[in-house]
Amino acid sequence: MTIARLGAAAGVGVETIRYYQRRGLLAVPPSAGSVRRYGAEDVRRLKFIRRAQAAGFTLEEIGELLRLDRTSDRARVRALATARLAALDAKIAELEAARGALERLKGVCAAGGKGPCPIIAAFDPE
């Protein structure tokens, strides 16, 4: 498939693919005439990159994971996954705190009948 079809198959643009290639995350296939051809493994790799990004891995970490995929270094993979889980747990706690603040804001603004809504006070942690 062409680079445009590869992008469509993985839900990314051509420039994103080229950027990943420049970063060494995705191989540049040899030219078949004037067109480079990509296969199913390229789609799989590109989808992995996108999923790993969605999980919060940096491109540097994704590059390391791709290199580790061909090794037996399970300890390093576990360490990367553990660090990412800790970061996600921290982000979840932050989002839950923000949700609580918004619930307080909604509640205090609904309870009052006159005057301004106590916006700043609603964001004070209880």
UniProtKB/TrEMBL annotation:
InterPro entries xrefs: DNA-bd_dom_put_sf (IPR009061), MerR-type_HTH_dom (IPR000551), MerR_fam (IPR047057), Tscrpt_reg_MerR_DNA-bd (IPR015358)
Keyword entries, A-Z: Coiled coil, DNA-binding, Repressor, Transcription, Transcription regulation
SUPFAM superfamilies: Putative DNA-binding domain
Top-rank lineage group of the source organism: Bacteria
HTH merR-type domain span: 1-68
Pfam family, one: MerR-DNA-bind
Coiled-coil region: 78-105
Any GO MF annotation of the entry: DNA-binding transcription factor activity
Protein name: MerR family transcriptional regulator
Organism: Allosphingosinicella ginsenosidimutans
